[in-house]
Design a protein that fits this description.
By secondary structure, the protein is an all-alpha fold. Helix content is 88%, strand content 0%. It contains four helices and no strands. The N and C termini lie far apart (73 Å). The model has no long low-confidence stretch (mean pLDDT 93).
């Protein structure tokens, strides 16, 4: 059992300490921003007592997803690149739809 724990500690050191650099730091920051979208959505839903997707969700998605795409490109990970690139189109489209909806609402008020 002690051998397994020692090997695990060595692996954790190799993964989280030995290879730590600016790109790893960017990856963690990017993941933080990407994850914040769920916190924002959860708080908004709790306040409304129903499921809500606030505009901040889409901005966190776009910002965090863009940073993660940069990280994935640097890492040359084709699965990660494809997933993040597709997501960016979805986030931009949702922000576009929201902007169009707000513009239409402003036009009706005038």
């Amino acid at each position: 059992m002690a051998n397994v724990l020692q090997e695990l500690a060595g692996w954790l050191h190799d993964v989280f300490v030995k290879q730590f650099d600016t790109w790893i730091l960017l990856g963690f920051v990017a993941q933080f921003f990407f994850s914040m979208r769920f916190v924002v959505q959860w708080i908004a839903s709790e306040k409304a007592k129903r499921s809500v997707v606030p505009i901040a969700f889409w901005f966190f998605s776009l910002f965090g997803g863009s940073m993660l795409l940069i990280y994935a490109i640097q890492r040359q990970d084709p699965v990660f690149i494809a997933g993040q690139a597709l997501g960016l189109f979805i986030y931009i489209r949702n922000l576009w739809l929201i902007a169009n909806e707000r513009k239409a609402a402003m036009t009706k008020v005038d």
